[in-house]
């Protein structure tokens, strides 16, 4: 749609214009003008809101010409810095639109304010103290403003000519954003209408069939860091789903760091430098784009990150002590490949930098893991051509109106949490609920059914974090069934993550002869991993061949099991001559393990199953290592292996009797879901595995 086409209001447009006169703008005009201009949407929408906030087609077209003229005449391109200087010298003054930031140099003649113009690149620009006091945000995040610049070559400061002066400035912002008007006007809309208005305000068309209610709620979750203090959100998903747009375009109180980069001095301030406050002090949120490219190599820097994400405060090790801030941390990153395979074989933090990928303490600080793989791959018809809030107006409401509110106890009227919800979990969930309440019910009032939905979303987003932590450390993070209870009925509801269903690898039905699952310790990864052993026995002369994973430890474990069976086959009552078969053994690892040397009993049972041509029971895992003489070793990390077994879909686990004493340390929920059987020698393990078929 272009400005010349006929624009038709729908019923929601008419209600919005009536409820918020002068606060709304046609979003199709934003898309049209955004192309070719390097200014944020909230600046562009300020101009559109000023000149085009009308439903009259002629008025819109006239206003559009004024906006284009203002942009052409005043918005500076990044490559025009020297041209601006030349024009200023020639004409003596000019008016531009630019981002003004101010620093204070206390050593300069008793104190001096200097302005910096970000787009035009002008530095050491004189600015009056009155402007700084009136518009204090120039000292923190900077303010996009209409500026009148003056060139005065007679101004010498510190023996250096400093000719550039801001003679006048007027910030680009809504004159007022009153919270009482916002709350009162919100009451004129249903919840569904209000959700659609918020989505249109950030550019989506909510009536498109691709935007299901689930997708709409996930999109709104991206806004929570703007309204909830110290809210930490991670979203990993495919490209072109709009992950970074809201943090880059719709609010001057958010900053997006491209490429995921941002040093500790940038984020938390320069040590012993009072004039360099960090980004977490200047913004409501700091978002990292393409975070898979980030590096957290310095352990001290990583600890500062962890401490801030947990406490909302930090110390730079100087005489300032502990400094508090309210900015949330947002990680946006891409997942390459099939998310179901990643969820099945590894964990969903795998795309992150190696230095934090498996750091459970770091990831335990996330309040929510938004499933980016459920978001839309954006197409032109997903963008709205209707009315929405002027971005700057909405940003002011978010920052000054909604952010100070606190609805973290709103759930308590109807619900309580289950016993798997720990203190960090509760903190995360109630902040998600509070954020949704601020966005959708700014007066703090909602129905029990609506609150149940928000609590369930909060629990799901936190459970997704816990599920990945459980894969890294199954014992410490075993309690993942996050739930809430209805205070009236006592009924319990457990939150679910849809991708959990893809982790079941072990079929319930019998496997073909020689096919078996086991769990071994991979020293290269420092964790237990699932393995699948497949043995094919064909007539031959006793050759053993291992393919797939072929580490030295794996080969030795398989060879030892084969030698034991060959030496003791007759004693065990085997009619077949083991030496009359060639054995091909393939070792697979769904989680991409490198090696393991403690699965001898599983090799033994698989070889025996292949030779006698009898299948093994379904849902089965066999644990244990053996010596050449059939002696059994105690299985280490039994709890971790039980957790991996349950996640993979096992129903039975067969383990050595020597591990019976270890069951006091196994979480009860594991023992409730998996049947455990013991064996005292390798042949007994084989009998238990085969006899169930």
Q: Main traits of this protein?
A:
alpha/beta, elongated, 693 residues, disordered N terminus, 5-stranded antiparallel β-sheet, 5-stranded parallel β-sheet, 26 strands
Number of helical elements: 25
Largest sheet: 5 strands, antiparallel
Strand line-up across the major sheet? 4-3-2-5-8
Radius of gyration: 32 Å
Q: Helicity level, as a percent range? A: 25-40%
Q: Would you report the number of β strands?
A: 26
Shape: elongated
How much of the polypeptide forms β-strand, as a percent range? Answer: 15-25%
Mean pLDDT: 86
What do you see in this structure?
Helix content is 36%, strand content 19%. The chain has 693 residues and is of the alpha/beta class. The radius of gyration is 32 Å and the shape is elongated. The termini are far apart.
Topology:
Elements: H1 11-19, E1 24-26, H2 27-34, H3 41-52, H4 57-74, H5 81-91, E2 93-105, E3 112-117, E4 125-126, H6 129-134, E5 143-151, E6 156-157, E7 160-161, E8 164-171, H7 179-186, H8 191-201, H9 213-221, H10 224-227, E9 233-237, H11 245-249, E10 254-257, H12 264-268, H13 279-282, E11 285-288, H14 299-311, E12 313-315, E13 322-324, E14 328-334, H15 339-345, H16 354-357, H17 360-363, E15 368-371, E16 387-389, H18 391-402, E17 415-417, H19 423-440, H20 448-472, E18 483-486, E19 492-494, E20 515-522, E21 527-539, E22 544-548, H21 552-568, E23 581-588, H22 600-612, E24 620-622, H23 638-647, E25 652-656, H24 668-673, E26 675-679, H25 682-691
Parallel strand pairs: 9-14, 9-15, 10-11, 11-14, 22-23, 24-25, 25-26
Antiparallel strand pairs: 1-16, 2-3, 2-5, 3-4, 5-8, 6-7, 12-13, 17-18, 18-19, 20-21, 21-23
